[in-house]
Design goal:
The chain has helices spanning 2-27, 33-36, 60-64, 79-96, 116-142, 147-160, 178-208, 215-228, 230-255, 264-295, 299-317, and strands spanning 104-106, 112-114. It is mostly helical and 325 residues long. It folds into 2 domains: 1-127, no CATH class; 143-325, no CATH class. Strands 1-2 form a two-stranded antiparallel sheet. Mean pLDDT is 87; it is low at 321-325. The structure holds zinc ion. The site of zinc ion (ZN) has 8 residues, from loops.
């Protein structure tokens, strides 16, 4: 029972965080420092009227207002409730399937009590997911991944790495403290995630003679590596290229090669998939697939070709702004 209450609570809390992320997504990329502040009441972006609290309830207000602002009757973008629903869904998924543990411990009598270690793991992952949502939508809007999110993300990721349950320890040595082993796992994750992405970016710049990827992608991947470890960072990069080249390829077919795409949202999607399913995916890629490849000669070349193809498409399609992001 307590578990179900927690799961519903996590979804509702996620929707509220999503409502705050809408503010972050809108205000953070603003040029004017006065508009960049995250505090203060919400104002209608069209007419500037203050939005009252009962018109600011996640998802529900948008539905009750039928997608139109009360003040000026201008349409409210469907993206606001979509971000709220998405964040709520991610928090629910996290509550149901917390990586490496549970928020609840059940004793022999079947009594559920809150597990502090699980709760802290939930909070840290919830923060990570929230940052990924904000970065994705800012990247859709501006083709930039602001330093104001990626740099603190890397720092928080490395600090969080001390906590057991975030990153797998780099080695299992009883002589070395576990906190040190998991922290090193986080640092190595940051270096591998950021480093490999930096290498791919440098390669793309040499081959295509343009900035295929931004430095923001490198910092985002450093953050992902710090939170998930080096294995999941490499998985994230591969998945990001795969998702991005599928979506980008479809868009290029419909709108021509001029239709370029940001990379951040696909890396973020790859990171979310890696967070929840990295064990299953690594098992599939390195245990079950090799059997299939041994039985089918030439299969590994096909896989390698597909991987190289999606990386190539990705580098052709990705667009980046002039600024460092
Ligand atoms: Zn208005």
């Amino acid at each position: 029972m307590a578990t179900a209450v927690f799961e519903v609570g996590a979804a509702l809390f996620g929707a509220c965080i999503g409502s705050f992320l809408n503010v972050v997504i809108w205000r953070l990329p603003q040029e004017d420092p006065a508009k960049r502040s995250l505090g203060g009441r919400s104002h209608c972006p069209r007419c500037g009227a203050q939005i009252r609290w009962f018109d600011n309830v996640p998802v529900l207000s948008w539905l009750l207002l039928r997608g139109r602002a009360r003040c000026c009757k201008n349409p409210i973008a469907a993206r606001y409730p979509i971000v709220e629903l998405l964040t709520g869904a991610l928090f629910l998924l996290l509550a149901v399937q917390l990586p490496g543990g549970s928020v609840w411990s059940v004793d022999l009598a079947g009594v559920e009590t809150i597990d502090l270690r699980g709760a802290a793991t939930f909070a840290l992952h919830a923060l990570f997911l929230s940052m990924l949502v904000a970065l994705s939508f800012i990247d859709f809007d501006t083709q930039l991944l602001p330093d104001a999110l990626t740099k603190p993300g890397m720092v928080i990721g490395v600090v969080a790495g001390i906590w057991p349950g975030i990153v797998a320890p780099i080695a299992e040595d009883p002589a070395v403290s576990r906190a040190l082993c998991t922290w090193l796992g986080s640092v190595v994750g940051l270096l591998v995630g950021g480093g490999v992405t930096w290498g791919v970016r440098a390669l793309g710049t040499v081959v295509f003679k343009k900035d295929a990827m931004g430095f923001g992608d490198v910092k985002l991947m450093g953050m992902v590596g710090a939170f998930l470890g080096w294995k999941a960072a490499l998985l994230t990069l591969a998945l990001g290229c795969l998702f991005g080249s599928i979506v980008g390829g479809v868009m290029a077919l419909r709108r021509g090669l001029g239709a370029r795409i940001p990379f951040g949202p696909y890396l973020a999607l790859g990171a979310i998939v890696s967070l929840f399913w990295q064990q299953d995916l690594i098992e599939l890629l390195f245990r079950r697939w090799p059997d299939w490849q041994r039985e089918n000669p030439g299969a590994q070349w096909l896989v390698l070709l597909a991987a190289a193809g999606s990386l190539f498409l990705m580098l052709v399609l990705v667009r980046r702004g002039r600024r460092s992001g």
